[in-house]
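Q: What structure does this chain adopt?
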Amino acid sequence: MHLRIGGPAFWGCTGLVCLTGFVIAGTAGRTATTTSSKSVITWLFTAAPRYDSRAWLENGERFPGGATIQVVSASGRRALVEGFTATADPDLSFDAVRVLFAGKQRANDPWRIWEVPLAGGVPRVVSNGEGDCYRPFYLPQNQIVYTRRTAAGSQIEVAPLDGGKPERLTFAPGHFLTADVLRDGRVLFETEHSYGGARAAREIMTVYPDGTGVESIRCDHGADRYEPREIASGDIVFAQGGKLQRFTSALAHETPVTVAAAGEIAGPVAESEPGNLIFAARANAKALFRIAALPAGVHRPGMNELQPVLVAPRTAPRRFPSALLATRTAGNLLCLNVATSRDAILGKTIRSVRVYTQDGTGKPALLGTQAVEKDGSFFVQLPGDRPLRLEALDGAGRVVSAERNWWWMRTAEQRVCVGCHAGPERAPENAVPEVLLRKDVPVPMLKPVAEQRSRQN
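A:
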């Protein structure tokens, strides 16, 4: 399907001949001029007989029947690579010359990250180590980011494109799935988010490519959000219940994207030009996903069409200068006012916070309890690269609000939060927090309380 958001659309039909002679501009300064040459490559997409967008939440296969990346040009279509049991998750290099993808050469092989010239050639393997690797994206400075799945769950890693030791970005239990790289350099990803129900929802979050600054795009949790992608306007467009929604920077809540097509939509979206969205859709659960922007001759019986990628050069995201130090083992967290929250239940009743990590068996382990100042501020030092979770307590020690999900801090990370579940629409007050007026050294909370007592005895 294709959809125009704002302004006149040039897209007049689904044939590739309609693109000849037009200038196409896309996300993050993508620009490309098509020509009348019949050999011009215009789209990549994944063809698969079956697709389960939620399978990664249970360590399952998103493409249980296999998949094949297709290259579409004015002269027809072809497989990106030959001799693979499965290929999926294409991402185009910034100069539009090479393609990253997830692939399995044999049915029993794990998924690996590969790179191949778009024009054709011998693919080379990029990832190594145990488990399955998939959903790769190019980063600046000759790096890539992707998801690694093992029996314990899935995590996000960054690795050199020419091979080498990967660096982990996520340090909480559960499942994570790479989704995009934003123009500002952050990695967009999906994660499972528990709200107390039997079925986990997917939530959209960001993290810098050194694992710092992890946060939700929005704090109005509860809906199942998946397959996000940044578009040319800077908005994040994602799927929810088979419909398209968007996050706009000026709004603290999601807004719907009106689509003429009926049925279910599968992300992620692509753009043929700014605001002209291309996506897969199907009429009902028994139908196949189709990308209507592709020529009619491209469609194959029994195959879903997913993950459209426009072939065009694009500007690389901003580089992120990491300040992490290998010699440090902890991070500092400064909260300006724990009472600043989008949850009315918090009010002004918070008197202390309790911080947990996980022990070796995955059970919560108390790191300690810290009183907050009269203005709601506190300053603590927490272990790096470990799961973390906070509870807010009233004067009687009762839990007023508690996080259900785990987050983390990197070693040497310096983090400041406005409040407790404050949301992106709230800015800090122009005042020095009282905790820093009293003492500018964070309170260490580095070892579980039970471990401290054991050493004392």
